[in-house]
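chain and backbone:
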Amino acid sequence: MNSYLNSNRISEAPYTTLTKLLEKWGTIQPETEAVVCHSYNENRTSITYGNLYKEAVKLAKGLVCLGIKKGDYVGIGGDNTSEWMVATYGILFAGAHPVNFPFHDKAGEGIKRTLTLIGKCVAILFDPGYNDSHWDIMQKITQVEPKTGMVLRSDIPYLKWVLPYLPMQSGGLSISTTDISRDDNTELPEIDPEDTAVVLQTSGSTGYPKVVEKSHFEIIKYGEAYAYLLDLNFKKSNGTIYYSDRPFYWLGGYPGFDMVIGATRVTQKSTLALSSYTEIVSFTITVIHREKPQCGFFIVPFYQEMAKSKHFQWKFRSLIVTGQPIPPAILKDMGEKFDSISALYGSTEGGMMAGKLYRASDFKESKAVGMIALAGYELKIVGKDGFVVPILSQGELYIRSSPQFKGYLNDPEKTAAVLTSSGWFKTDDFCRITAEGHLEVLGRVSDVLEIAGSKTTPSFIEEFIKKHPDIMEVTVFAIKEDDKVDDIPCAAVVKRVGTTLTEESIRKFIRQQLNVTEEAKFTENIYVPKHILFYESLPRTPTGKNDRKAVKNMSIPKITRTDMSAV
């Protein structure tokens, strides 16, 4: 049997727009909180559906009066806040396309690169940041008239307006989006479900981030898939309280699911503002205990850390976990800390491609935990020869969906490299289909290590290392020695405070996990890292994934350079 999966489930997503959904909830439940934002050492803030709808429409009218037309692009940068929501929906009601970007690059080069690639980005709405740090970045790529927000000079073509959506502390700009909002008869354009709802950057794990457009209907379909994986009836779940600290500018954190079911999204302004993993876990527990969400969305390692804390005393109705396979330690919490759990696999390009819901009422410990194609998706595993491989065989995952991924915006060369003529998207993920018909994600094709003819993935080695109780985080990468064909596995590790781990104690632990026979002794060369480096923290991409490339780049100088060169 060939490695091919498709979904028998039909999506129930309504064919409408996010703006129509906001209008609906703003009318039906105007007093229900749409977003609740927490930030460390700051007060809880929120906005109701009624106020979000009213303020977004007023801002949209102001944007139209500035000359922003349907089809224009408008950059939006900042943390998870109520004001970000107003700005985003104001852009949408004006018929423009929001281009999400983070402020992770102090020089502003990433912002400039993205908005230049987009073309016709006529405005930027932004959060000034702590002590106006984001404004400092904006000034490196633009010169703005302080009283009007009009651009005097910019490295970004077509840019005409730069406006903060929160007051500035320094007074660098005396105008904000509040000043241009209008409560009058300005006419707003009609929005179609196929119109662009958001422009997202990819994770950048394989180089500079690429840019992907998502329509209103695509975002709504993802929201319906979230509801399915959270075991909710999306037609009757308005008012559900849902926790996710994922950034709004990331597809997995974009507030589309909330709008589909009329949920209250509980989030954090920015988890990156805290100085340690321990602080983030502690503050998240405080937020969850206060807000009492029925549902939650977490990356696997974070949920593990939180669930292990003796201070965590909450039971979710349902969870979605992503980023890694669900380990047995999490499944032991079934029925005690949650009633149902879903694994989810997705990407910026492909959307929410695969997942599976497991309920405590019908879960058996011996059952394999895997994922199946979600509604509207086809999945197949392809070998190097371009043909579908048999079940249980490894290869690259291709996906096809409705609506279909159309490619990277204004980048035909990169699009041609990943999109086949028949509409299959090459994910660059190394996968297989199990005997149970489940998708198993093994790593990235471009990350696969080849040693003496054997292949393995960094994530496979990482799973062995993560089992060590004193290791909090690990990223595996490969280097090459000069004149050698084989890859050499290396590991960057974050150990728990106060522990006395050494390189050799980790290698010994891995060997014990492998438990290889003398006849298979060579396999230790495949799975036991030759170099292990210790760090206080490891870099992540803007979407929260391990940034393998950045880890590798910062580790190579620490590895003995004798006869060594990077891949």
The longest strand covers residues 471-481. Residues 376-447 form a domain with the Luciferase; domain 3 fold (CATH 2.30.38.10). The first helix runs from residue 18 to 28.
